[in-house]
Specification:
heterodimer; A: alpha+beta; DNA primase, PRIM domain; Ribosomal Protein L9, domain 1; 4-stranded antiparallel β-sheet; 12 helices; B: Transcription Elongation Factor S-II, Chain A; 2 domains; 14 helices; binds iron/sulfur cluster
């Protein structure tokens, strides 16, 4: 029964989706990969001529995570990586709650269900990455940047800028260590802070890290280290440096949540557990497990609470799929 | 168009300079005795082998002597000599630039493929051009967080820009000389020139003789630092070792001049060994892949924090770098010390 609910959810979603929503630039040049939820075997080195063939494939396979390459290749389905003919890679910055140091040890985050304050923090990091680093410092254009909800615990920020496609790993590493502050010379900042009068003002108004630190210190925070900590972002360097990375394909379903991997236009107002649920009118019956650790978290209008633990109830099917896949409920007849 | 006389004498590598010396090579260098003399003196002076400096009067001589000196340094076949010579030339360039007005820097930089413009009192460069520069990652002042960065443009104060240009210059010279070294055939060198090269080479090794040139020895496993020995022994037992430990072993073996194939053998016993992937990774560490960056062996301090260091006794009590451990142990062995390389021996097999 439970499997049936999930299968129907995925099948109906892919049957109903407008194929155009699966489009990304250079789609025929991307490698695709599919991973079953038990994560035992990855089918990769596939490519699709257009969105309709991708959609048909999605309808024909068992439930899977769906990935496409950040890279474009001359021959994306060639199994030999060296023979694929790499032509360049988008840059992807990943923010996942389990990589953010303030969140990764929280019990609810570890079991993969985030509360409102967790989402605020991740959204804040994502917003700062885009606004402070990618737009202000690196000068990318708004049009080159897209933000996708990952379908589970975070966001992917993708930069598709033609001149940067061929940027080497060394160059990407420099960007990463700028964002995470790894190469920052703290002594240099201290020495500038010690300067007096005009020299100090000029140094601290210098765009880049210097003025970022100066602003935070000006806001009343006193130590330079604390300031740096509050500015630096924990991006996953491996994702950015991997020129052959496969990342979740837009508008497919995350196989561990049933939510949509969706583009986010307005980050501030985006509510993952509302906006990324597949719209659905159907209700199904579920039996809740132990919901105590998730009290107060709301999914599709249903607020989880201790009182619901162990209860039997009819809920919206998308909510049911989320809860079942997260192990918080069981499908029931 | 080649630059003016004075400028070329100072910066004999500017664009167009090579046109002035077309046809000059180690085969016919002795047909130009003045150039040979200048080149030899330049290398000796720069390497600290003699205090005598000779300044070319003519731009053609300056360019020819510079270019010949690089070829001669390459012909010694010594990586160490090449690196020392490149470092000395790079320091000299930084000094020369500081005596000139910043207007000239742009042209000097452009000859090295560094695209930057003078903008008021600073130099500016597009972020993409900055990210594409090679070989600047070991200079903290040249790293992005220390620079002014705004809307995709990176700004450099004049002194920092000088550092940037000289750092790129050093890297360019090393690359050029190493590639000349690989392509050179001894037979093509004029005997007179050969003599000059041999004497420079001998004096240089004598002067540096007190230090052991580890890259010229074949690897002596028993003298490897305890950490490297330990992690190799784990791999030999078929145990998967942490990423940082793999990084240490691979960078260490590469930096004592082991080939990628030989390094691979050490990793072949690990349970998740995949030759294709391992080769890719090791070639990347060796700087033979995409970025061209050669990774250095981490310092002991880093290895201690990441839990990869395995010994705190004897030589390791105050050790700063695994390569230094290896060098000192070789020296000890040469001096007949039976305990060389035996720190923490017995704590693993
Ligand atoms: S002190 Fe250095 S050389 Fe010695 S074991 Fe530790 S890391 Fe290795």
């Amino acid at each position: 029964m439970q499997e049936e609910i999930v299968r129907a959810h995925f099948h109906e979603y892919y049957a109903g989706i407008d194929a155009e929503k699966l489009f990304i630039p250079d789609l025929p040049k991307r490698e695709f990969g599919f991973l079953r939820p038990d994560k035992r075997e990855m089918i990769r080195h596939l490519s699709f001529y257009d969105v309709s063939s991708l959609k048909s494939y999605l309808m024909s396979i068992p439930i899977s995570h769906v990935y496409s390459s950040t890279a474009i290749y001359r021959d994306p389905s060639n199994k030999d990586m060296n023979a694929k003919g790499w032509e360049g890679s988008d840059m992807v910055f990943e923010f996942d709650a389990d990589h953010v140091k303030q969140l990764k040890d929280k019990p609810n985050v570890r079991s993969g269900v985030l509360d409102g304050s967790d989402w605020s923090l991740i959204k804040d990091h994502t917003w700062r990455l885009v606004n402070d680093f990618l737009l202000d410092d690196f000068g990318f254009s708004q049009n080159d940047i897209s933000i996708n909800f990952s379908g589970n615990r975070g966001f992917h920020v993708r930069v598709s800028s033609k001149p940067y496609l061929q940027l080497s790993q060394e160059g990407r590493r420099r960007l990463a260590s700028y964002i995470n502050g790894a190469d920052l010379d703290v002594d240099l900042i201290y020495s500038k802070l010690k300067q007096r009068g005009r020299a100090k003002i000029i140094a601290l108004s210098q765009p880049g890290w210097m003025s970022k630190v100066a602003k935070v210190i000006g806001d009343g925070q006193n130590s330079v280290e604390e300031a740096i900590d509050s500015i630096a972002l924990d991006i996953d360097e491996n994702v950015l440096l991997d020129l052959h990375r496969l990342i979740r394909h837009v508008n497919t379903l995350h196989a561990s949540t049933g939510m949509i991997v969706m583009p986010v236009r307005d980050l501030e107002s985006f509510v993952p557990y509302e906006d990324a649920l597949v719209p659905c009118d159907e209700e199904v019956r579920v039996k809740f497990g132990d919901l105590r650790p998730y009290s107060g978290i709301s999914v599709g209008g249903l607020t989880l609470s201790e009182g619901l633990s162990g209860k039997d109830m009819r809920v919206n099917r998308s909510v049911a799929v989320f809860l079942v896949l997260k192990g918080l409920a069981q499908g029931n007849n | 168009m080649p630059a003016g006389s004075e400028v070329l004498k100072k910066y004999p590598f500017l664009r167009g300079a090579e046109e002035l010396v077309e046809g000059l090579s180690l085969t016919n260098l002795s047909d130009f005795p003045r150039v040979l003399e200048l080149a030899e003196k330049k290398i000796r002076y720069m390497l600290g082998l003699s205090g005598e400096r000779d300044y070319p009067m003519d731009k053609r001589d300056a360019v020819a002597a510079f270019s010949a000196s690089l070829a001669m340094a390459s012909a010694t076949g010594s990586r160490r000599l090449i690196r020392s010579y490149a470092s000395a030339l790079s320091r000299e360039l930084e000094k020369e630039l500081s005596t000139d007005a910043p207007d000239i820097y742009e042209e000097v930089a452009a000859s090295l493929g560094v695209k930057a413009q003078l903008d008021g009192k600073e130099f500016k460069m597009s972020l993409l051009d900055y990210l594409s520069l090679k070989g600047i990652d070991n200079e903290p002042d040249l790293l992005l967080p220390q620079l002014k960065v705004e809307h995709g443009v990176v700004y450099f104060q004049v002194n920092v820009f000088r550092k940037l240009v000289s750092t790129v210059f050093r890297r360019t010279l090393v690359e050029k000389m190493e590639s000349q070294m690989r392509e050179l055939s001894a037979a093509a060198i004029d005997p007179k020139v050969k003599d000059a090269i041999a004497s420079i080479s001998a004096e240089f090794s004598k002067r540096r003789g007190e230090e052991v040139d580890i890259s010229s020895l074949s690897p002596i496993e028993s003298l490897f630092p305890p950490c490297v020995k330990f992690w190799i022994s784990q791999m030999n037992k078929g145990i998967n070792i942490p990423h940082q430990a793999r990084f240490l072993v691979a960078t260490f073996l590469l930096s004592i001049d082991m080939s990628v194939d030989d390094v691979l053998k050490y990793f072949s016993h690990t349970p998740d060994y995949d030759e294709h992937i391992a080769r890719y990774q090791i070639e990347d560490l060796a700087g033979q892949r995409g970025s061209g960056k050669k990774y250095s062996v981490p310092r002991c301090e880093t290895l201690r924090t990441s839990g990869v260091c395995t010994c705190r006794q004897g030589l390791c009590q105050h050790m700063t770098h695994p390569l230094l451990y290896y060098k000192i142990s070789i020296q000890k062995r040469l001096n007949g010390d039976p305990n060389a390389g035996r720190d923490c021996a017995g704590s693993f097999s």
